[in-house]
Design a protein that fits this description.
alpha/beta, Rossmann fold, Type Iii Antifreeze Protein Isoform Hplc 12, 3 domains, seven-stranded parallel β-sheet, 15 helices, globular
Length: 433
């Protein structure tokens, strides 16, 4: 039975739909509001954005006419209970409103992590679209949720989540996954800064820093590191291979070197490729059965020898995100969450950086992200990119060098820094694994 049918039955039994709160009403948030509004068995009960008029506009664009700007939390709770749509400016307080699930779409790692923590502590299910937070403190949040009564998840619709679904499919078929990954649909220019993409960003109606995070490779590195943490797979080399491979060559290229491919290990690993694979995701699998191998060739599954590729040619972002509502509310499980800490995304200098520089974060002028094996990053004391913002450099760092914790004075006022320190301590002491 589909989620739609089951959610409709739930609504009939309870007399109300799933109440959804949404944090962030930018482009992606507006799309999510519209998609949830169209779905059966769920409704947008509250939207929070620092610009409340943006939240009101998102609800209006979806066709809601029962939107109320909350004057207090008590007022907001009354609106939600009456079936209306409350608008407020503080996403950290949505967990107080008796919602079934909060969807975070802010795009800001610090906000996303705090929203997730507030929901987990309140026993409210929470789903993030800001994977930058998950790749920084996702294991902490997943373990805390698992120890309580809430579900913590990253939303369906983004590449790492849809790639995980291919991994699960392959495993259910009894096939061995060698590589899981995505196609990169932007140029790979690690030294890009916002000025370099300003014209393109204006044409696309994008924030230049967001576009920079795509073209400098940080977004891809973050997505694949999150996939590594969700699967337990490895990052084989810092930054991954990023080979120029087209769709028809995946199974031939992404296999161990001993078998004619580019990998230095036997897998499983995460990778990204350039070529015509984007905006899709893929897994390369191996069959150890001659009978199954022959059958797969007979069925024309693309492959070479006993290696084959499974491919999904799209990911639908906020359009697919409501699938995570059904999975969390009905099945009490996450669509995607860290199960281990296999990878970290490290701040790497875009240019020669001088001591005293206060660093910008993701998509800025100073650093781009490079995915590393988490154990190696820990041994080398490397700095996660999400912690770099507002940190002060204590010494010069040359272009291309990975930053260490010793290179910076962290901004200890950021809750994300405290959460990451807690996760690191728990990993070190074996409290979480």
């Amino acid at each position: 039975m589909s989620y739609t049918q089951r959610l409709s039955e739930r609504e009939a039994a309870l007399g109300r739909p799933v109440r959804v709160g949404i944090v962030g009403a930018g482009q992606m948030g507006t799309g999510l509001v519209a998609q949830v509004h169209r779905a059966r068995g769920m409704e947008v009960a509250a939207v929070a954005d620092v610009a409340v008029e943006r939240a009101e506009a998102a609800l209006a664009a979806a066709g809601r006419t029962d939107v109320v700007r909350a004057e207090s939390m008590e007022h907001a709770a009354e609106v939600v209970a009456a079936g209306g749509a409350a608008v407020l400016d503080d996403g950290l307080r949505l967990a107080e409103l008796g919602l079934d699930i909060v969807m975070e779409v802010s795009g800001i790692p610090d906000v996303a992590a705090q929203v997730a923590l507030s929901c987990v502590l309140a026993g409210t299910d929470v789903a993030l679209m800001t994977v930058e937070a998950d790749v920084t403190v996702g294991l902490l949040l997943a373990r805390m949720a698992g120890a309580g009564s809430s579900v913590y998840t990253v939303c369906r619709g983004d590449e790492p989540v849809e790639c995980l679904k291919l991994v699960e499919y392959a495993e259910d078929l009894g096939l061995e996954v060698v590589v899981a990954g995505k196609g990169k649909n932007n140029p790979m220019r690690p030294t890009d800064v916002p000025e370099d993409v300003a014209e393109e960003a204006a044409r696309k109606g994008m924030n230049p820093k967001m576009l920079t995070s795509f073209t400098d490779g940080t977004k891809t590195q973050i997505e694949m590191a999150a996939l590594a943490n969700a699967t337990g797979y490895r990052i084989e080399t810092p930054g991954m291979h990023g080979a120029a491979v087209d769709l028809d060559g995946l199974a031939a290229a992404l296999r161990p070197a001993a078998e004619g491919g580019i990998l230095t290990t036997d897998g499983p690993v995460v990778e990204y490729v350039t070529g015509d694979v984007a905006p899709g995701v893929f897994v390369v699998v191996r069959s150890d059965s001659e009978v199954v191998t022959e059958e797969l060739h007979y069925l024309r599954l693309p492959g070479e020898g006993n290696h084959f590729q499974l491919y999904r040619p799209y990911h639908l972002a906020s359009v697919e995100a409501p699938l995570s509502i059904g999975e969390a509310v009905l099945e009490r499980r996450a669509s995607f969450a860290a199960t281990a800490w296999s990878a970290d995304v490290i701040a790497t200098a875009k240019s020669d950086l001088a001591a005293g520089t206060v660093l910008e974060g993701i998509g800025g002028h100073h650093v781009h992200g490079t995915a590393h094996d988490a154990d190696e990053a820990r041994e080398q004391d490397l700095l996660p990119i999400a912690l770099a913002a507002t940190s002060e450099l204590l010494r010069d760092v040359p272009a291309g060098q990975a930053l260490t914790y010793a290179d910076v004075r962290l901004d200890a006022s950021r809750p994300l820094v405290a959460m990451r320190r807690m996760q690191d301590s728990m990993l070190k002491n074996g409290v979480i694994r």
